[in-house]
Amino acid sequence: MRSHDRRPAAADRPSPSGTRPSATGARLAAAEARLVAADLRLVGRDPLLCVMPFVPFLAAVALRLILPPLAAFIAKATGFEPLGYAALIRAVLILFPGTFFGMMSGFLLLDDRDDGVSAYWSVSPVGRSGYLAARLALFSAAALIAGLAVGPAFGLGGRAFALDAGVAVVGAMQAPFFALFLAAFASDKVEGLATLKALSALDLAPLAVLLPMPARALAWPFPQYWAAELALGQGTGSAVHPLAALGLGLAASAAWLAFLYARYRRRVD
Amino acid sequence: MIRVSGLSFAYPRAKGEAVRGIDFAVAPGEVFGFLGPSGAGKSTTQKILLGSLRGYSGSATVGGVEASGADSRYRAGIGAAFEFPCFYQKLTGLENVRLFASFYPGPKEDPRPLFERLGIADAMDRRVAEYSKGMRMRLNLIRAVIHRPRVLFLDEPTSGLDPANARVVRDIVRERASEGAAVFLTTHDMAAADATCDRVAFIVDGRIAACDAPAALKRRYGKRAVVVDREPGPEAGAAAGGSAAGAAAASPEFPLDGLADDAAFLAELRKPGLLGVRTLDSSLDGIFLSLTGKELA
User: Fold this and answer.
1) Is residue B230 a part of any domain in this protein?
2) From the list A17, A42, A116, which residue is nearest B77 (CB)?
3) In terms of domains, do B64 and B130 share one?
4) Which CA distances in Å does A44 have to A97, A150, B195, B246?
5) Maximal CA-CA distance, chain B
6) Does the complex come out with an ipTM higher than 0.90?
7) Where are the alpha helices (DSSP H) in B36-162?
8) Mean pLDDT throughout B264-283?
9) Handedness of CA B162, B167, B173, B176 (dihedral sign)
10) How many CB atoms lie within 10 A of CB B215?
11) Which residues of chain A does B150 touch, with a Cβ-Cβ cutoff of 8 Å?
12) Are residues B117 and B47 in the same domain?
């Protein structure tokens, strides 16, 4: 008796549909684009999800207007210079879109899981992986673009575009992190909101760069911390080379994503 | 088109196997009913064939391809309708059908005639969140057949439907089979199975207990005898204490063997008030009960 626990090679195999392998790649690329379009339509029809992409920009613009006079007031009253930390605040803001786009994506995944749609995708040509990849890629790309735009919207603490871009890349990786975290651990949207509340502590992880060792090391597993090291830049507040900080941020993100993806698959299978 | 041989599967940490060495085949153009009580192994078998469950032993192929190797090309030839219809609630019925259909290669049907035939044309442009269960079931069937799959997996396709709509669903299933599709139909609805399936298999505790055409099974599990029904006379009503008023009165049973020369049977036919002659075939309900020991819900 044979056991079938491994996927055999797909090439040169007949299929029920009789389609050719050469057509499959292009067809799947088009399929991913259609999934993205469907997600955009779903977001457009949800009043809550519709406003989420704008929240980081509202926060950035509000801080741009409020922070300088407030900082001047605080400096005059206490001698403490908040604007000395503008680069760190900028990094936190650039990370925000990853959080918000991740929340949107996570809520869509929760809806799909509750409605059984994710199970249906698994028996379609797209497959569960293709469906998930399209969704996570869409919201990560959106988070990257928004992350790049949030820095200029804030307008303070800017150093080099490359540093902003590096932080935005780490921020974009947070979209799938939040999405998979919600889908893997929350049972429904209510639980999802509670989970998000707990996860919001991660927004403070970049502030760990201000802590002395060994307390600072507690934030090392979190990509947001490395984004702050990256934003501060070597010689101007960080002892870590920006490329090393970027690499560590991406590595930490990848490790989290691998763990969360495995949890998500266990939950939906 | 579907071939299952020595198929066994055990869920992780489960005490026993959910499916225990089953064999069957479904030919193109055939509607194959897979019947059995909850937990008997129906859904497990279907999930294996859909490529959703791996780690089985034996063989389960669709179109000659082993289900453990199910990829996008494998799934492209399949149409599936789950027992619990799942759709994007914020999209309309038509948007849902078009979205899912767009991922299948080859020409698709125009969904509008199917919406009309299934009586949900008026709701085509309404969000699925506003659909009743019956409407979702019909939408479920449209999504499963819109890309003209060569293999159809249908789980309780008539659940929650009124008799008229259930009939339309059965007609569509039969039509797809007549066009060459192999249909694997899982159901508790024995009447639907009887009316739709070319063959049915009863699965009990992971094993196939019986598999044949419904008519052959009904004969096999029934009595080789007939009874004569006639309008109840005064004596029949008195014998039944008056409770059988309006119901047909049945004669004693007459064995099929030698029926043409059975004088008592012929005499029964000559009596006034003849309504009909019935064979004592079993019903699929009765066979289900005798094989599983469980009443149908």
Assistant:
1) yes
2) A17
3) yes
4) 17, 22, 45, 63
5) 70
6) no
7) 42-49, 72-76, 93-101, 111-117, 133-145
8) 86
9) negative
10) 10
11) 16-17
12) yes
CB contact under 8 A, B86 and A119: yes
Residue of A nearest to B78 (CA): A16
How confident is the model over A46-92, as pLDDT tens digits? 888 888 889 999 999 999 999 989 988 998 888 888 888 888 899 89
Distance from CA of B293 to the nearest CA of A (A): 31
Phi and psi at B282, nearest 5°, equal -80, 170
Sorted by where each begins, the domain ranges of chain A are 33-268
| B182 and B236 housed in the same domain | no
Nearest CA in chain B to A113: B86
Q: Which domain holds residue B265?
A: 223-280
Q: Residues 40-79, chain B: which have Cβ within 8 Å of A?
A: 50-52, 54-60, 62-69, 71-78
Residues B108 and B251 in one domain: no
Contact present, B49 and B60 (Cβ < 8 Å): yes
* Polymer length in residues for chain B: 297
Contact A116, B84 (CB under 8 A): yes
Test A16 with B50 for CB contact under 8 angstroms. no
In chain B, what residues touch A42 (CB-CB under 8 Å)? 88, 90-91
Whether B174 and B71 map to the same domain: the answer is: yes
The residues with which B204 forms a beta bridge, in sequence order, are B207
CA B283 to the chain's CA centroid? 14
Residues of A in contact with B87 (CB under 8 A): 115, 117
Beta strands A3-4 and B2-9 are unpaired
Q: Is residue A124 pLDDT above 60, yes or no?
A: yes
- The answer to whether residue B295 sits within a structural domain is no
Spatial separation of the C-alpha atoms in residues A30 and A112, rounded to whole Å: 21
Q: Read off φ and ψ for residue B276, nearest 5 degrees.
A: 170, 175
Measured between beta carbons, the chain B residues lying within 8 angstroms of A115 are: 86-89
Query: Does the bond joining A97 to the residue before it have cis omega, within 30 degrees of 0?
Result: no
Instruction: For residue B161, give the amino acid letter.
Output: L
Phi-psi region of B205 (alpha: psi -120 to 50; beta: other; left: phi over 0): left
What confidence tens digit (pLDDT) does each residue in B225-238 have? 888 888 876 654 44
What count of other Cβ atoms lies within 10 Å of the Cβ of residue B149?
Answer: 23
Q: Which residues contact B227 (CB under 8 A, 6 or more apart)?
A: B250, B251, B252, B253, B254, B277, B278, B280
- Pick the residue from chain A with its C-alpha nearest to B96: A38
- The alpha-carbon gap from A174 to the nearest alpha carbon of chain B, in Å, equals 25
- pTM score, two decimals? 0.78
DSSP letters, A166-187, are HHHHHHHHHHHHHHHHHHHH-S
CA B119 to CA A112: how far, in whole Å? 27
**B73 and A42: CB-CB below 8 Å?**
no
Q: Cα distance from B260 to chain A (closest Cα, Å)?
A: 51
Which residue, among B120, B157, B163, has the nearest Cα to B137 in the 3D structure? B157
Which two three-digit tokens encode residue A29?
Answer: 């690329």
Give me the residue label for tokens 């992880």.
A205
Partner-chain contact B82 A116, CB within 8 Å: yes
